[in-house]
Amino acid sequence: MSKRETVTVPQEEIAKQREYIHLLKESGLGKIKRYSISTFGCQMNENDSERLAGMLCDMGYSEAQNESESDLIIYNTCCVRENAELKVYGHLGALKHLKRNNPELLIAVCGCMMQQQEVVDHIKKKYRHVDLIFGTHNLYKFPELLYNASVTNGMIVDIWESVGLVAEGMPIARKFGVKALVTAMYGCNNFCSYCIVPYVRGRERSRSVEDIVGEVTALAENGYKEVMLLGQNVNSYGLDLGGGLTFAKLLKEVNKVKGIERIRFMTSHPKDLSDELIEALMDLDKVCEHLHLPIQSGSTKVLQEMNRKYTKEQYLSLIDKIKSKNPDISLTTDIIVGFPGESDADFQDTLDVLEKVRFDSAFTFLYSKRTGTPAAKREEQVSEEVKKERFEKLLEVQNRISKEINDQLLGSELEVLVEGLSKNSMETYTGRTRTNKIVNFKGTGDMVGRLVRVRIDRIQTWSLEGVVIEQVPYYA
Ligand code: SAH
Ligand code: SF4
Ligand code: F3S
Q1: Tens place of pLDDT per residue across the chain (476 aa)
Q2: Phi/psi of residue 187, each to 5°?
Q3: Which residues neighbour 247 within 8 Å (Cβ) at sequence distance 6 or greater?
Q4: Residue 190 CB–ligand 2 contact under 6 Å
Q5: Nearest partner of 46 among 168, 163, 181, 156, judged by Cα
Q6: Distance (Å, rounded) from C-alpha 449 to C-alpha 72?
Q7: 10, 14, 70, 386 — which has fewest CB within 10 A?
Q8: Which of 233, 266, 363 is the pocket-test mutation for ligand 2 (most atoms within 8 Å of CB)?
Q9: How far apart are CA 275 and CA 281, in angstroms?
């Protein structure tokens, strides 16, 4: 059975956007102007910001050191939790005086938050100094929108509903030189009852294998050593394209790209993590021994109410299967505390899962009510006080486990891909192991982008320290 629900933006449309880039550059509207982009939220947004930066670079813009010297300020927003939204409003408010001092300044807001009508209404009313609002589905139209905003007075708003589009062929300027984000698929079909993402990112749309492999090949040719394939649930990659395509098959193709040393991916939904993918994790040499597998809660009752479609026991047996095939795998997860109706016993189940699975690390979140999601309508919201108490307990347990797991690495020799200088240091370099652990060590500039072998001699909860014992020759 073959079906195709995903539509690629026609090349004439991409060509039109490229003309706008040219127009902005030639007219001088973009020339020698400086931009700053602040990105909130997940790696999807990071990757989208890299696309915006790519378009701006082609227009002749350069990146500013800070907002006050910028001619264009962009906020690429997130709405997964309330505090992400509050941060954006705080920043927007603070821009009022910049705009007053420099009426030429252009302010644009985009990203997930803008896909909510009430947010756009609020900005129109309270933040009239904003010049341009656009969403997640028309990001590729940014050159045209920016052109219009440059020649018009007043606010331009252009938000689209999800129409199943994927845009290829727009420029991109990456933030890092060693590892790169590569979107494999957009959107989400899962509708977990607490989550706003499917409403603001639309339905699942996969990029073609050729486009993804083409992008990864170009990255390898430009010296990149690691790629992170992105999707809200990579396990359903390819389903919309039909023809029996799966994520494991995509991994096999990416694994063939010469020059790429490491492949990572995020995120896998436990409900459809296939045996084929577990095998691929084990068999494909470049696919790193790390799996991020969000559990969200350890209580079967809560999981059902979250619409996660697996039980505590199913999750645990999945983990057993993964560990039996890949004993050295590092496991990480996401957990929400204080989902409506979560009882002490439910929370105990979550702690129990932590003890049983022993994740290398966990991202923990306080449940945040998102208007428009089914969970927001629930009456039994957990009090802030109880949420915080549980959150603290969760951190305490997980930090202990993370430290215990890391302690076992003392004295071991690990392969590290060197990413660059560690923050605020002139000689300490930083990189990651295949299991995604941060390692800091004394090094030299020529090591950046290379694999080195490091003997671990100090353990922290969040990172490791060691000494380089060998540079690993690579076989590109
Ligand atoms: N698609 C990914 C992650 C999406 S958002 C996945 O399914 O794993 C990242 C994390 O934010 C989620 O895993 C979840 O733990 C958290 N999250 C999402 N909505 C939330 C909410 N309303 N309150 C608190 N945390 C939330
Ligand atoms: Fe949100 Fe669930 Fe989709 Fe992840 S899988 S983005 S948590 S709805
Ligand atoms: Fe990511 Fe936030 Fe959007 S987590 S998909 S940027 S709502």
Answers
A1: 345 567 889 889 998 998 998 888 888 766 568 999 999 999 999 999 999 999 999 988 899 999 999 999 999 999 999 999 999 999 999 999 999 999 889 999 999 999 999 999 999 999 999 999 999 999 999 999 999 999 998 999 999 998 888 999 999 999 888 999 999 999 999 999 999 999 999 999 999 999 999 999 999 999 999 999 999 999 999 999 989 999 999 999 999 999 999 999 999 999 989 999 999 999 999 999 999 999 999 999 999 999 999 999 999 999 999 999 999 999 999 999 999 999 999 999 999 999 999 999 999 999 999 999 999 999 998 999 999 999 999 999 999 999 999 999 999 999 999 999 998 788 899 999 999 999 999 999 999 999 999 999 999 878 999 999 977 765 43
A2: 80, 180
A3: 184, 231, 234, 235, 236, 237, 238, 265, 277
A4: yes
A5: 181
A6: 32
A7: 10
A8: 233
A9: 10
- Ligand 1: does its nearest atom lie under 6 Å from the Cβ of 195? yes
Distance CA 411, CA 408 (A): 8
Query: Which helix (DSSP H) or strand (DSSP E) does residue 266 occupy?
Result: strand 262-266
116, 79 contact by CB (below 8 A): yes
201 lines ligand 3 (CB under 6 A): yes
Classify strands 34-39 and 72-77 as parallel, antiparallel or unpaired: parallel
H or E segment at 90?
helix 82-94
Q: Where are the domains of the chain?
A: 4-158, 179-407, 413-471
Rounded to the nearest 10°, the torsion over CA 18, 69, 82, 204 is 10
Name residue 404's amino acid. Answer: E
- Write down the CATH number for the domain with range 179-407: 3.80.30.20
- Pair 351, 393: CB distance under 8 Å: yes
Ligand 3 lined by 42 (C-beta under 6 Å): yes
Strand 361-366 and strand 330-337: pairing?
parallel
Answer yes or no: are the C-beta atoms of 186 and 204 closer than 8 Å: yes
CA 407, CA 460: separation in Å to the nearest integer?
8
Q: Which CATH superfamily is domain 4-158 in?
A: Methylthiotransferase, N-terminal domain (3.40.50.12160)
CATH of domain 413-471: 2.40.50.140
CA of 409 to the centre of ligand 2 (A): 33
Amino acid in the structure at residue 290: H
Distance CA 165, CA 188 (A): 13
